[in-house]
Design brief:
The complex is a heterodimer of chains A (493) and B (244).
Chain A (H helix, E strand, L loop, with lengths): L5 H4 L10 H13 L9 E4 L4 E7 H12 L3 H14 L2 E3 L14 E4 L14 H14 L6 H13 L4 H16 L3 H18 L26 H16 L7 H15 L14 H4 L3 H5 L9 H7 L3 H6 L1 H14 L2 H15 L5 H13 L11 H10 L9 H21 L1 H9 L10 H9 L7 H17 L5 H10 L13
Antiparallel strand pairs in A: 1-2, 2-4, 3-4
Helix pairs in contact in A: 3-4, 5-6, 5-7, 16-17, 16-19, 18-19
Chain B lengths: L1 H23 L9 H29 L6 H34 L18 H8 L17 H25 L20 H10 L5 H38 L1
The chains are: A mainly alpha (493), B mainly alpha (244).
GO biological process, one term (chain A): G protein-coupled receptor signaling pathway
Pfam families (chain A): DEP, G-gamma, RGS, RGS_DHEX
GO cellular component, one term (chain A): plasma membrane
């Protein structure tokens, strides 16, 4: 196409996965419709007239199987692909774009309505088509078409007079044609829009992913660039590139996939139901951060690795509860404080660092953590000029400590056993089509992120208010019980 | 008065563009012929002439700073409608041009068996019978070879492209400020026609049929009820007459 329509193009015509359309169109279909060597055509008998050039599904499948020397099953799926892309349309049951290997009739689509890579389907045309349908018979639009029409009326409002006028004109121009031709044209147009604006719940053959902004067929790397890359730049870099043996990396990947494959909503079933598919949000409400009873899948994920446990807010709560019982909550509190320092606002950083030092690191601090001497020295030195990552070494040390020690004990603990016992396993939800429609209509926006943030802050405040377990209190309690008292700690500042 | 002229001119352009689309849908099908291509060319020429005249009118009016607010709003509406028409025409012209590549008249065996039997002559006649407001005589292009026609077409497409670009450059119409005045739904034109067409289509749309059935059902019920009430009234009056 030599003429570039730069202003209206917006670079949207590069839809790479649609490159197959040209092969299908020019090659297969033109051979198929050849009156001598193509698929056998017959007359379609209607009430008052007959229309030629109808083909049966079984003929299509037989012709494809014969031409490409493939099995009937493959011929049928190839035929279904042709119908799904819009090159052939069914005359009965026009919404199901499949090839039925029986006597059901199909017809070739006119080239004007063939899908093409360089012509994206315009919403203006869709609006005109819907308006035309409404002119022909008022109220004939289905629910989803009605919704689309209203939506288009809202955002294409400036063109609406034109759309209504053009619909009327196209309708009038159509009336000039002979009745059988008009019926055929209506069927053609209807088939075109079933392909490109599929009814809800159907899979579209036109799903091509994202639009590309550059032409994927254009030359990207010029020759000089290539020379530069191969002889000058890459060799110098390659000695610095970190290398991992593929056996190791692939082994890690395989291990990850085997552990997580039942938890992936694409590979395994999402209980109770995938909200993106059924529009039912119970999956999200059951898996919220502050939920009382977690789901079984979630609890299972905590056993995969310590990171999973900590990343999940509910898991972290459970772990915190366990540590509270064991009176070793200061490790987790220190880790959380470091995270807060790393990810928090820059304004209060030095205060935060000081607070953490006083609470966890100073000699005789109320929640003193046990890290080795070198790390402690390095951290204290760094705290003279605090920055975001000043506590990184200490945090890593504590993390490894928790992972090697507390995590194992947590997994064997009563707390975890109770949580696992109480975890719920939701039933799979089965929706009928009508219920799915209703779900789609009852979609509501989720909680605003501002509200969620406020809830988090409130929770944090509550946690802080409940008070950290003070080592002095613990020690005094122990001494009251008659155990050996350690040397009295210095008075609290 | 100039507004009315613009409006009628735009309406005619819309009709010609609609006819062009119907003709374009026949290209590459079994009724594609030299005659169809010729009709396409003539319709295209007419559309372009109308478009040029319209463009000139609308641009000159909208560049007139002294235009009152109400008229300006109307002009902007017409402007948006006109530019949409042009875009539709441009898209159709590009499609016809591309399809001419694949379906050349020399090799008529590849024309797709689409089931269409008549040509687009009636539609073309409708398009060409539209009044020519410009009154200028159109130069009759010679019935040349296909290649010559293709190069002419290429030129014409780029002309329309330039027209659209020029329009955008010369007048700045803020599309989000333009509000449509017409109805949301186009009024049904002729109800008898739809009934006969319905006989031709093989499977009627499901919700329409369901609504029809439901409506008939409820209508039947109402009739039965009415009949029962009438019968009761008749019986009561008869009994009153007998026993009085």
């Amino acid at each position: 196409m030599t003429i570039k329509n730069a202003m209206r193009d917006h670079g949207q015509r590069y839809r790479p996965r649609m490159a197959c359309l040209k092969k299908v169109g020019s090659a297969v279909l033109l051979e198929m419709q050849d009156p001598k060597t193509g698929v056998k055509s017959q007359l379609q008998r209607l009430v008052i007239t007959t229309i030629p050039h109808a083909i049966t599904g079984e003929d299509i499948v037989a012709w494809l199987a014969n031409k490409f020397n493939i099995s009937a099953e493959e011929g049928r799926s190839l035929g279904t692909m042709l119908v799904a892309l819009g090159y052939i349309y069914p005359l009965q049951d026009h919404k199901r774009l499949v090839v039925k290997p029986d006597a059901s009739l199909y017809r070739f689509q006119t080239p004007y309505f063939w899908p093409a890579q360089q012509w994206p389907v315009e919403d203006t045309d869709y609006a005109i088509y819907l308006a035309k349908r409404n002119i022909r018979k008022k109220g004939i639009l289905e629910l989803y078409e009605q919704e689309q029409y209203n939506h288009l009326h809202k955002w294409m409002n400036h063109k609406w007079d034109f759309i209504v006028m053009q619909a009327k004109e196209q309708y009038r121009a159509g009336k000039e044609r002979k009745k059988p031709d008009r019926a055929v044209f209506d069927c053609q147009e209807r088939a075109y829009w079933v392909v490109h604006r599929p009814p809800p719940g159907t899979v579209s053959g036109m799903d091509y992913g994202l639009d590309r902004l550059i032409d994927p067929n254009a030359e990207e790397v010029t020759e000089t660039d290539l020379i530069f890359l191969t002889f000058l730049w890459l060799p110098s870099l390659s000695c610095f590139l970190p290398r991992v043996k593929s056996s190791v990396s692939i082994g890690a990947l395989v291990k990850f996939v085997t552990t997580h494959k039942n938890h992936d909503p694409f590979l395994a079933q999402c209980l109770p139901s995938n909200p993106w598919v059924t529009d039912d949000v119970s999956y999200w409400t059951l898996n919220m951060a502050n939920v009382e009873i977690p789901t079984k899948m979630r609890v299972e994920r905590w056993t995969f690795s310590f990171v999973e446990l900590l990343e999940d807010p509910r898991g972290r709560d459970d772990f915190r509860f366990f540590l509270k019982k064991e009176f070793s909550g200061e490790n987790l509190a220190f880790w959380e404080g470091c995270e807060d320092l790393k990810w928090g606002a820059a304004a209060g950083m030095s205060e935060k660092a000081q607070h953490i030092y006083k609470t966890f690191l100073a000699r005789g601090a109320p929640r003193w953590i046990n890290i080795d001497g070198t790390t402690m020295e390095a951290t204290v030195r760094g705290l003279k000029h605090p920055h975001r990552y000043v506590l990184d070494a200490a945090q890593t040390h504590i993390f490894m400590l928790m992972k090697k020690d507390s995590y194992g004990r947590y997994l064997k603990s009563q707390v975890f056993k109770d949580t696992t016992k109480n975890a719920i396993n939701p039933e799979e939800q089965k929706f009928t089509d009508a219920q799915l429609d209703q779900n789609a209509r009852n979609r509501r926006p989720s909680l605003s992120p501002i509200a969620i943030r406020q809830m988090e802050l409130e929770q944090k405040a509550k946690l802080a208010a409940s008070g950290p377990v003070d080592i002095t209190q613990v020690m005094s309690k122990l001494s009251k019980q008659g155990k050996d008292a350690p040397p009295p700690p210095p008075p609290k500042k | 008065v100039c507004c009315i002229l613009c409006k009628t001119s735009l309406k005619i352009l819309d009709e010609v563009v609609a006819c062009y689309r119907h003709l374009a849908s026949c290209v590459g099908g079994c009724t594609d012929s030299l005659q169809l291509r010729d009709e396409l060319r003539q319709t295209r020429d007419k559309a372009q002439k109308l478009a040029a005249a319209n463009c000139h009118h609308l641009t000159s009016h909208l560049r007139d700073k002294s235009l009152p607010e109400e008229q300006r709003k109307e002009m902007e509406l017409l402007w948006v409608a006109f530019s949409s028409s042009l875009e539709l025409l441009h898209a159709d012209m590009c499609k016809v041009f591309n399809m001419g590549d694949i379906f050349s008249l020399a090799n008529s065996a590849v024309f797709v068996q689409t089931g269409i039997q008549g040509g687009g002559s009636e539609v073309a006649a409708r398009a060409l019978s539209m009044p020519d407001l410009n009154q200028a005589q159109s130069p009759v292009l010679p019935e040349g070879l296909e290649t010559q026609e293709r190069s002419t077409m290429e030129q014409e497409i780029s002309q329309v492209d330039h027209m659209i670009t020029d329009m955008e450059m010369k007048v700045n119409v803020l599309r989000w400020m333009v509000e449509s005045r017409g109805p949301q739904y186009a009024e049904p034109l002729n109800s008898t026609d739809s009934a006969s067409l319905a006989l031709l289509s093989m499977d009627e749309e499901q919700p329409g049929a369901e609504h029809e059935a439901a409506r008939h059902h409820s209508q039947m019920l109402m009739m039965l009820l009415l009949l029962a009430v009438i019968l009761l009234a008749a019986a009561l009056s008869v009994s009153v007459v007998i026993f009085s």
